[in-house]
Amino acid sequence: MGEQYGxxxxxALTIAGSDSGGGAGIQADLKTFTVFGAYGMSAITALxxxxxxxxxxxxxxxxxxxxxxxxxxxxxxxxxxxxxGMLANAELVRVVAEAVRAWRIEPLVVDPVMIAQSGxxxxxxxxxxxxxRELLPLATLVTPNLHEAAILADREVPDLLAMRxxxxxxxxLGGAAVLVKGGHLAGDAVDVLFDGDQxxxxxxxxxxxxxxxxxxxxxxxxxxxxxxxLGLALPDxxxxxxxxxxxxxxxxxxxxxxxxxxxxxxxxxxxxxxxxL
Length: 277
What we know:
Order of helices and strands: EEEHEEEHEHEHEHHEEEHH
CATH class: Alpha Beta
Number of strands: 12
Largest sheet: 8 strands, mixed
CATH topology: UDP-N-acetylmuramoyl-L-alanine:D-glutamate ligase
Oligomer: single chain
Strand order of the largest sheet: 4-3-7-8-9-10-11-12
CATH superfamily: Ribokinase
CATH architecture: 3-Layer(aba) Sandwich
Low-confidence stretches: 116-120, 271-277
Number of domains: 1
Strand content: 15-25%
């Protein structure tokens, strides 16, 4: 861990897109790192113009500059854990994988952001192949939603049993542990973690979201990365992340005219706090 004036602090890096509305992407990741007490850093893969009502524009960052950001951070500050988010094309996946290998960045949480909860495509078709070839062999954990798990495992994932089968199939592709998120299944919200040896089910009462699931995948993956940076074992990091996300959903806030936002700071008393000097 990083040292400054004798004080140690966990260092967590997010490699993902920017959400100008603050609900997802690196903004959600950095807030999550802060809640967990980790020092957050970022390598931005794309700029977006968006708010609670939708996305008005996307401006990809050149892969060479994404690599330059990673090189700058790791060469000076160092990284105790990292997570990847939206990587919109295969070249970007390759460049990020090269940097992860070169700097031996681990543990690495890969959120394979290809398909939104709605089922809408968020990346080019060849990204899935690049993720399979380049990133999965480097990952400590991969966190697909049901749509992404179906793509990576090459099978339908309609129920809990299929989630288990998909988790095993994805694990066999690269050796990473797999957390299949049960997002839109009926009943309780159930995620399935397969660590290569055994299954862990994380089950909570489903929280009606009214569409407020924007940023939940980013937040969960970055929370796991923060836990790993702090030295938690993988099942413990996943459990802590699930609890934090559930609390943030229960305490979401209304901003703008669109979907509600996760409130990540309510539980640590930061919201509304004024510092008096």
